[in-house]
Structures are given as C-alpha cells and as structure tokens.
Amino acid sequence: MLSAVFCAGISGIDGYIVTAECSATGAIPCFELVGLPDTAVKESKERIRAAIENSGIRFPELALTLNLAPADRKKEGSAYDLAMLVSILHAGGVIGHDIGLAGKCFCGELSLSGKVRAVRGVLSMCAAARDAGIEEFYTSPDNAAEAAVVEGMKVYAVDDVASLVRHLNGEELLEPFYAEPREEDASYIGLDFADVKGQQRVKRALEIAAAGGHNVLLIGPPGTGKSMLAKRLPSILPPLSFEESLETTKIHSISGVLPAGAGLVNVRPFRSPHHTMSAPSLVGGGKNPMPGEISLAHNGVLFLDELPEFSKSVTEALRQPLEDRQVTITRANGRVTYPSSFQLVCAMNPCRCGYFGHPTHPCTCKEADIHKYLAKISGPLLDRIDIQVEVPSLSYDELSGGGGEAESSAEIRERVIKAREFAAARFEEYKDHPDGDMPTGGIRCNADLTPRLIRRFCRPDEGGARILEGAFNKMGLSARAYDRILRVARTIADLAGAEEISAPHVAEAVQLRSLDRKYW
C-alpha cells in the first residue's frame, strides 16, 4: 500500500509543500526514513512509534519506507511528525484506504504520549498549503489561532493522535477552529509621552520621526530621559496594517517568539537588545540561518541603548540593512532573505563619564578619551541617521511640572496618522505614473522615498533651496545626507499639511541633522 500525505517546511519566511510518502509491504518489519532528513527528523521514528502505541493503536508490523519529497531539499525540525504518522497509519490500514487525504495538510510535533505539540512557522506553512490548493490544515491547538489567520483555509486543532484518527475515519468529527476578529492596536498601554517631563524639542523630533519613519539618534547626559523617550516612540506610530501584521507574525513565528495560542501580531515590535550581542544575533545567522534582531523589529522599532558600547562590528552590520530594508544571509546550508524594515533609534552619552558639554556637571574625561569614545560611531552609520537631537538636562521647574501638563501619546499619534495619510494620498496618485519609480513593496512613509522620488516630491521653494545650499556648503554634507534632509523636510511639511516645502521646513530639518558636526 502506498500513501501520500502533505505537510510543509520553511525557507526564509515562506513555506513550501512537502509530501510524506509511505510504502508499506508485507516483508520483514522495518522502518526506513529517506528524503534528506536532519537529526530532528530522523529521531521522529521513535516519537511516531511511541505516539501510536501510547494512543492505543497497534503500530503496523510492515516494512515501511517513508520518503519526504522533494528528496533533494534538506528537511529540518519536527513539524513533519504528524504528517508522517498519518501516512504510516493510512498505508497500514488504520486510517481507511478510502479516506481521501489529497486536500489535507498536517503540521505538528508529536509527544511520546500522542499529544500534538506546537511548531514554529505555522502561519507560513498554512499560507503555502492554501496557495497549493489544499483546503484543510491540521495542527496543534497552540498553533491553531495563528493558522486560522489564513483566509480560505479550514483549520483543525488536533489535541492528540487518537482524536485525529477518529476524525479521519469519520467516527468523531472535530470542529473547525475559527480565529477571533483582529483587534485594533491597543499597544503600549502605560507607556505614554505624557509621563515625560519637558523635552519638548525631543518630543517634536520623535513626532517627525514617527510621521516619516526616520532613524533617530539621541545624545545627552545620564538621566535626561533618552531611554524613556525611545520606549514611547511605538505609542505614537500608526497601527499595523493587516499586511504588516502578517509579515511580522511570520517572522516571529519562525523565530519561536510568538506566544502559544497567539494569532496575528497587532502591535508594532520594539526590540532593545543588550550591547553584548554579536553581529549574527543582530542581522541573523547560525548554521540554519534564523532571523536576527533587525528582522524581529520589522515594521517596528530597533532601540540600541548606549550605542558606543556595542561592538563596532555589530553597529557597522546595520549599514546595508538600513539602506536595503532586507538582509540576505548566506551559509553552507543555503541562502535566505529576511525583511528588515525598521526604525533605528539610538541613545548615547557624549563621553564615557556622560557629562561632556554639561552646563553644571564637570566632565572627567580626557580630550583624547572623548574622541576615542565618539569614534566608535562611524561616519557612514551617522550618515544613515536622519534625525540627531540633543537631550539636555531638565530644570527644577520642568521636573516639578511647572511647564504644565504634557501632551499624551494619543494626541501626538493623531497628528502622525494625519501626516501619513496626507503623504499616502500623494503616493497613491503617482504609483500608476508611467515614469513611476516605486520601490518593491510600495512606499509606506517618506523614509522609503527613492532618489528619483525625492527629486519629484521633495523640491523646496526658493527660500528653502537657499537654506539647503548654505547648509550643504557649510556642513560638508554627503549626497546621502542631502537626500535625508529633504526627506525630513518633506515630513515636516506633511505634518503642517503643506504640499510645498518652504524655508521653515528645510531649516528645521537641517537643525535636526547638524548635531554630528558638534560632536564629531
């Protein structure tokens, strides 16, 4: 008897269909597994045998040869367990030979007791099954909410082997699992800009960054609120769209950071890795390449606190992903590409002791040590940071609330959303233009503008052009810095509801870019 059952594997953030083929003959009982299995897949033979027997089912006393096709592609992980078990039981007659399995896909790990456990990457697997024309998807109860997000797929939450066999034989049918309606973004409750005293200029800079998706560097002495402000940036970002939620959920599922029973990720990620991390931890890697922190921060914020304390090899690894919005990892086992469209927010002290340039607290660092400390941040990396803002010490009146009640994140977020909608209308009109230069995936914010679109959408008026010319000549800006100032000026104009970029917009953008000249 020959049986073929569908399951799925993962390549990058996408799934692909794998067929578990089982040939059962009446020769001397044995169990052979082929199809380029890794160690975890090879060990599934013992898990499958124990799961069948501990479910009260007799393991078929037959010569079993099980192939995972395509046979020239490495199979990794434990997600194939459930499909291999079904294939064996179907070939051995435990599941009726007249049961059609062609429209069904099975993904899950088996415990020795016969329970079905969660695996990583189920959302991508279920999407691949749907695209292959499969109509039913069987997985662990902990993965069911994630799989049910895929439209057009009937998902079944399988608790154990015995209940699955009864369902397939038509004895006791399982009920399909339906996902809860997607909730609106209610993220970052408790993290509000109203909690931050003073720092109006920094809040304005972060509002501009949120409206345009720009990268930010915060410099200031200890205790001025740099980390506090950065952690509240997601609270003023627009809600995730459905497409962004799908992308983000796929990455988190593949990485194993999606909580059990979770469906779509509906809040923007905020990743804040420790400064002792390695470059592969940041960009992704390993023997079997996995997403790094920059991909886990996709559609969200990557916060690097105490930036100079990170290894230079780590910070320099950011340069290409910041430009390309994706990272390609090549290893002996293959090559994968992960998306990494994130907002970079960095915070740092101006020197080792933290008080260089402080109006009242003396700096204890030598001049050479200050230069050495600041030199840990390279020019090319600074060039890719659109907004650089100083976070000064607060006065007593500001700390004690003398400046009045601060704006809430909800109020700032309304302006950010309005600015993004203002920009989106402009891009929507242009996307079908015959001379269009839309990047892959379209434009979600001004930070995504290509050089050609900058020339089209970011032309300053005569007064703005004069200010930009003076800044370019005086500050020695690079071509990249010139483009980034125009992007920021475009965002400032969007916040003001202005189609034309005027002198005040350019002047503010230049001021938000000039801090590197003070320190570097």
- Determine the CATH superfamily of the largest domain: P-loop containing nucleotide triphosphate hydrolases
Strand order of the largest sheet: 11-14-17-10-18
Biggest sheet: strands, sense, closure?
A: 5 strands, parallel
User: Structural class, from helix and strand content?
Assistant: alpha/beta
Query: Helical segment tally?
Result: 22
What is the average per-residue confidence, as pLDDT, rounded to a whole number?
91
CATH class of the largest domain: Alpha Beta
Radius of gyration: 28 Å
CATH T-level fold name of the largest domain: Rossmann fold
CATH architecture of the largest domain: 3-Layer(aba) Sandwich
Strand content: 15-25%
**Gap between N and C termini:** 74 Å
Structurally, how many domains make up the residues?
3
Low-confidence runs: none
| Fraction of helical residues | 25-40%
Query: Quick one: how many beta strands?
Result: 18
In oligomeric terms, what are we looking at? Answer: single chain
Principal-axes shape call: elongated
